[in-house]
Design brief:
The protein is mainly alpha-helical. 47% of the residues lie in helices and 6% in strands. It has three domains: 12-58, no CATH class; 68-160 and 260-281, Cytochrome c-like domain (Cytochrome Bc1 Complex, Chain D, domain 2, Orthogonal Bundle); 172-255, Cytochrome c-like domain (Cytochrome Bc1 Complex, Chain D, domain 2, Orthogonal Bundle), CATH 1.10.760.10. The strands form three sheets. It has a two-stranded antiparallel sheet with strand order 1-2. It is elongated.
Length: 284
Amino acid sequence: MSNQRRPEEAPDTGHEWDGIRELTNEPPKWWTICFYASLLWCVVYFILYPSIPLINGPNEGLLGWTSIKEYKAEVAKYDEQRAPYVSKLEGMSAEAILKDQEMLNFANSYTNAIYGDYCAACHGTSGQGAEGRFPTLLDDEWLHGGSIAAIQESVTYGREGQMPAFAGQVSDADIGKLADFVIALSQGNQGSDTDWALYEESGCGMCHADNAKGWTDAGAPNLTDAIWRFGSSKDEVVRTIAHGVNAEGVAETRNAVMPAFEGRLSENDIKLLAVRVWSMGGGQ
């Protein structure tokens, strides 16, 4: 296949350096064939597919192919495959979905994009939350109840934390004592009668209950566990007691607002998001 001549027989260009002559041997035939085949392939590609622009506009190609059309075709194929499952989910209650492992798996997969678009910015991609800002979805501590119905209500209507600011109503010294008492409760220390008396006199029991285990109707957290909404250091606890949560007109108050998704998401998507959140944290 080679048409090369031996170096002593091949003509040269007249260039020589350090005893090396520059020859004019032609390339092997296989290389030449591949080269022209590549040119032909380029011409065929330019005819069949979108390529270089022409005078009157872009060259759309004889096949009319575009990446957008391919994308839409793949989406349509995907929608067709999942349509029976989506239709079945729409007719199921959240409780029924939780009892059907196949549909639960599909629901959690289906809500990947919805959760990423509407929930992950605050609660994290894995539901881990952000300490002091947004609650985790991975534990079994629920401010407003962990039943599937309560979670669905939270997603639908949103939530807004409420705690009055005690600064000015309770002395700084007593706020410090309350902070120490609450921290001790979270560590398993039951506290003294004096501590409980201050707890009741300050009005804490009205929301957090007489046993300090919280009250979901008020969105008041359990004070006897080691889970903290805004931080567990004494400074953080003092700030929460002193300035409250969403206390009107208080500059240093904690902000705790979850938006409502009613009207932004369909009832079915809200139901499926509730199912996902419930399954992430082992809902009640």
